[in-house]
Design goal:
Blueprint: H1 3-17, H2 37-46, H3 52-68, H4 74-101, H5 107-136, H6 149-169, H7 177-191, H8 211-222, H9 231-244, E1 249-251, E2 260-263, E3 271-272, E4 283-287, H10 291-305, H11 320-334, E5 346-356, H12 357-365, E6 379-387, E7 390-395, E8 408-413, E9 420-429, E10 435-443, E11 447-453, E12 463-467, E13 478-484, E14 494-498, E15 501-513, E16 517-526
Antiparallel strand pairs: 1-4, 2-3, 2-4, 5-6, 5-8, 6-7, 7-10, 8-9, 9-10, 11-12, 11-14, 12-13, 13-16, 14-15, 15-16
Helix pairs in contact: 2-4, 3-4, 3-5, 4-5, 5-6, 6-7, 6-8, 8-9, 9-11, 10-11
Length: 531
């Protein structure tokens, strides 16, 4: 970044921090490096393209300056915002792929990447919203923006929705005003009769959209329980939603098959229709509509061919089974009938000891076999509701960065002596330090077992596993175990001993794979020793 721009940026920042809009000597032309379009294009072209993190950082600062400096004519301000936003897209996509494809980023790397991407979309959304606001409030010269309003609105809504998505990817905390701004911009498009006007959002990316489609894409993602999806699954879900967005339904009045609603006059996110909301002209009801059938056809195709149709663009190549799991998740939440709870939930308040990871579970189930068990690593959560299948808990303070969807946890209720085993299925960060989780219970009491490959030797070839069903060894033909990730070789069977007898475990299915564990179902049979 050039020294002239750095000096100008410092003056601009001081002015903004003082609650002022920068204006030097009352000149008709703003004191800004991009006051001339040729110079603006040159500045954008000179931003280094070989470091996307630095490039995106420069661009969101340019967006901020263009948005806040006084003196630009509305039409020219909109031109600059589009110019910078266009140039930033390739870097935003590259950083997004890097964030989502990395198997495990350090906390510093994750924070740096996430911060840059989120801040870019925030500044992009604010810049487009500012242009729209100039037209909506009748600012001087803003009538020239009228032909641009469908395009500016689509890009504003997409930037706001993408900002929200990046907050989903971290499971919060969520910025409360976002839905209010999003709803107002869409409501303006409706009232001015351009909500359904088709435009090409980005010349470099094929495809058209409208304000209504962008609105539906955002509310349908919100309605799809993103807090129970892994980041990569969330990305796939967003792409699938975009693919079928023209099939969604949006109406003014509640109908029997309409599952969700939103009030354009509030800052509340979409809600499922549990009971009819009080009638208001700002209510909008929406549902999957024909997209349910679109989704079902995709599910059947992936099941039959183990591949996605060529016309479905997910922005990358993903394991078909991962895509199939996301398709089924969307189908469940898009149904006009809400996902039924398997058992009633009861409100409680009690403390809960928590350990995490495969090794953490082994240590609390068999502390005598652990050489480095550290009691200080045990966390304390607060149970808020319980059911036969799991419970919800509040987290007073996040410790470390281990907590994520799919994490394995060991849990001991206050006053109890047994450790439950569960998996984190839902996560919501209410602040940087506090949040809430939904846990699926896998077992009320786990049991460690010495296991070894078929034909191996007990002791020498053994590794510990966790039996999830205590009653299984006493006669059940099928058992479910937790194994260390990668411990089971494809096609391999395992053995264990009990009461002097050897049992063979025949692999039936890998039910789930987490970061450090595999949950595997086996059929068991007693070995015939020939005696």
């Amino acid at each position: 970044m050039r020294a002239w721009w750095r000096n100008w940026a410092l003056r601009a920042r001081h002015a903004m921090q003082g609650g002022k809009v920068l204006k030097i000597f009352g000149s008709s032309k703003p004191d800004h490096p991009m006051a001339d379009i040729k110079e603006a294009r040159k500045i954008v072209e000179q931003i280094p393209g070989n470091d996307s993190l630095k490039a995106i950082d420069e661009m969101f600062h340019w967006l901020e300056s263009v948005r806040t400096v006084e003196g630009f004519k509305p039409e020219y301000r909109a031109e600059l915002v589009q110019l910078i936003d266009d140039a930033a897209q390739v870097h935003a996509r590259k950083l997004s792929r890097e964030y989502l494809s990395a198997p495990r980023l350090s906390k510093f790397q994750e924070g740096r990447l996430w911060g840059a991407i989120h801040e870019f979309w925030k500044q992009s959304a604010l810049a487009f919203a500012t242009c729209i606001d100039l037209h909506a409030t009748g600012a001087k010269g803003a009538e020239a923006l009228k032909p641009l309003m469908p395009l500016l609105t689509v890009r504003a809504l997409r930037a706001l929705a993408t900002q929200m998505k990046w907050q989903y990817l971290r499971y919060g905390p969520f910025e409360e005003p976002l839905w209010g701004v999003f709803a107002k911009i869409y409501a303006l498009a409706e009232s001015n009769k351009y909500a359904q006007t088709q435009v090409t959002p980005y010349a470099s990316v094929p495809g058209e959209s409208s304000a209504e489609q962008e609105f539906l894409r955002a509310v349908m993602l919100s309605a799809s329980s993103p807090d129970s999806l892994l980041p990569l699954e969330m990305e796939i879900a967003e792409r699938l939603i975009a693919h079928v967005s023209t099939s969604f339904t949006l109406v003014l009045e509640q109908q029997p098959d309409i599952a969700y609603w939103i009030d354009l006059a509030t800052s509340q996110p979409p809600l499922r229709v549990a009971r009819p909301p009080q009638h208001a002209p700002t209510l909008r009801f929406f549902a999957a509509g024909r997209a349910e059938q679109d989704l079902e056809r995709l599910i059947q195709t992936v099941k039959a061919t183990n591949a996605l149709p060529s016309g479905v663009n997910l922005g990358g190549t993903y394991d078909p089974q991962t895509v199939l799991a996301v398709l089924r998740h969307l189908a469940m939440y898009w149904s006009s009938k809400p996902p039924a709870r398997r058992s009633p939930r009861h409100n409680v308040k009690s403390r809960l000891k928590v350990t995490h990871g495969f090794d953490g579970v082994l240590e609390v189930l068999a502390p005598e076999k652990s050489l480095d068990f550290d009691e200080s690593l045990i966390e304390s959560w607060i149970v808020e509701n319980v059911s036969a299948g799991g419970f919800g808990a509040a987290i007073p303070q996040f410790k470390g960065d281990w907590l994520r969807i799919g994490a394995l946890v060991g849990l001991q209720p206050e006053g109890g002596d047994n450790w439950l085993i569960g998996i984190v299925r839902r996560l919501n960060r209410e602040s940087a330090q506090q949040g809430a989780v939904g846990i699926q219970t896998l077992a009320r009491r786990g049991q460690t077992m010495q296991l070894w490959p078929e034909g191996g030797t007990a002791g020498r070839d053994s590794d510990l596993g966790v039996l999830l069903d205590m009653a299984a060894p006493n006669g059940s033909p099928e058992v479910e175990l937790l194994l260390r990730a990668g411990a089971l070789v494809a096609g391999q069977n395992l053995e264990y001993q009990r009461d002097g007898k050897t049992f063979l475990l025949l692999t039936t299915a890998v039910e789930e794979s987490g970061e450090d564990y595999d949950r595997v179902r086996f059929r068991q049979m007693m070995r015939d020793t020939g005696e």
